[in-house]
Amino acid sequence: MSRTLSLLLGTLFFSAAAHAQSTQPGLWEVTQKMGGNPEIDKAMAQMQQQMAGMSPAEKKMMQDMMAKQGMSVPTPGANGAMALKVCITPEMAAKQDMPVQTEGDCTTTIASRTANSLKMNFVCKSPPSSGEGTYTFISDKAYTMTMLMKTTHQGKPVSTTLDGQGKWLSTSCGAVKPLK
């Protein structure tokens, strides 16, 4: 898997995992669109092309790898958005302990929290990146989010936006295992 694909999947995973308000346990679908600069738009298009061109064996390998992390393979959505499924256990929901980014040695800090919003900051060591995000909770079964991520690409600073939403699908996570 290419470094670009790994970075983009990690970013999708990070943003999917940062919400920590009152949420229903079970299977969630997180849909996100990255943008903000031509390089990221090109990388997203390449990632989607790579995923579409994978052999069944490669797709199975990626599905197995992501399943061990508690995720499903992201699927292309409308307007270049990507969707992935995440399992939230009842214990995680009760503690407001949502899955966290496991790739990139990241630290997340909650800047502020209200009844229906959460503002957070993050810093990752590998690849070096940082950012901030705001989650607006519509209910315990839906939220929207915006995030600004800053990193470097080929020695140049790059800012990327991430807009998305999460929606609860069911009480059963099915084959999607909880994140570790």
Description of the structure:
It is a single chain. This protein has 180 residues and is of the alpha+beta class. 27% of the residues lie in helices and 42% in strands. It contains four helices and eight strands, in the order αβααββαβββββ. It has helices spanning 3-17, 38-52, 56-68, 90-95, and strands spanning 26-35, 75-76, 82-88, 106-113, 117-125, 128-139, 142-153, 156-170. It has an eight-stranded antiparallel beta sheet with strand order 2-3-1-8-7-6-5-4. A hairpin with a 3-residue loop joins strand 4 and strand 5. It is globular, with a radius of gyration of 15 Å.
Briefly characterize the structure.
The protein is an alpha+beta fold and 180 residues long.
Helix and strand succession?
A: HEHHEEHEEEEE
Helicity range = 25-40%
- Could you say which structural class the secondary elements and strand pairing correspond to? alpha+beta
Give the uncertain stretches in residue-range form.
1-9, 11-20
Strand content: 35-45%
Summed over residues and divided by their number, the pLDDT gives a mean of 75
Q: CA-to-CA gap between the ends?
A: 21 Å
Major β-sheet annotation: 8 strands, antiparallel
Q: Would you count the extended β strands for me?
A: 8
Radius of gyration: 15 Å
**Strands in their spatial order, largest beta sheet:** 2-3-1-8-7-6-5-4
Tell me, what's the shape? globular
Tally of individual helices: 4
List strands and helices in order, with pairings.
Layout: H1 3-17, E1 26-35, H2 38-52, H3 56-68, E2 75-76, E3 82-88, H4 90-95, E4 106-113, E5 117-125, E6 128-139, E7 142-153, E8 156-170
Antiparallel strand pairs: 1-3, 1-8, 2-3, 4-5, 5-6, 6-7, 7-8
